[in-house]
Design a protein that fits this description.
Shape: globular
Mean pLDDT: 97
Strand order of the largest sheet: 3-2-1-4-5-6
CATH topology: Rossmann fold
CATH architecture: 3-Layer(aba) Sandwich
Bound molecules: magnesium ion, zinc ion
CATH class: Alpha Beta
Radius of gyration: 15 Å
Order of helices and strands: EHEHEHEHEEH
CATH superfamily: HAD superfamily/HAD-like
Length: about 180
């Protein structure tokens, strides 16, 4: 049986580029302090980690799939330096109008990410910084962990569609929680 953590990318691993903005280059990909350590801890806790990220800037021509691959290489290298890794990084590069089956809050990207898993999933969490992520998690049946390191802020709480299962300031604090309770 597998334990799985889905991670959003922007605002979770790297700094949120701001509403309506995108990370359009490797230079714009700035890691949030503690993110690599957090990934290492989650892996140590026996979880598979899948990054699932909407990147509609590709469909809009703001950057290319090649840029996304360069960013992946950079991230994977930093993980390798710390002797850890992510199991897969999956992107939806479509725009809303494409009406694809992978753009969050649809679950196609998650289905794709886990398609190589041989074991059944016994426990899954989705860690994200937006309510699109939280709704995606619910659609999939994963527990919801909202981080306040990106798009969503506590002051919007009264407008939230629902209360996430857990809320943390950043990925490192979420990883400590997972390690302490689900390792
Ligand atoms: Mg995000
Ligand atoms: Zn898509």
């Amino acid at each position: 049986m597998a334990k799985v953590v889905f991670l959003d990318r922007d605002g979770v691993i790297n700094r949120y580029p701001g509403n309506g903005n995108y990370v359009t280059s490797c230079r714009g990909f700035k890691l949030i302090p503690g993110a690599i350590e957090a990934i290492k801890k989650i892996k140590k806790g026996g979880f598979k980690i899948f990054v699932v990220s909407n990147q509609s800037g590709v469909a809009k021509g703001k950057y290319s799939e090649k840029t996304l691959k360069q960013i992946n290489r950079r991230l994977n290298f930093k993980l390798w330096l710390r002797k850890t890794s992510i199991d897969a990084i999956c992107y939806c590069t479509h725009s809303n109008e494409d009406n694809c089956s992978c753009r969050k809050p649809k679950t196609g990207l998650l289905d794709k990410a886990i398609s190589g898993l041989e074991e059944k999933i016994e426990l899954s969490f989705f860690i994200g910084d937006s309510f699109v992520d939280m709704v995606t998690a619910q659609n999939f049946g994963a527990k919801t962990i909202l981080l306040l390191s990106g798009k969503e802020k506590l002051k919007n709480r009264k407008n939230w569609l629902f209360e996430p299962d857990y809320i943390f300031d950043n990925l490192l604090l979420a990883s400590n929680f997972l390690l302490n309770n689900y390792a």
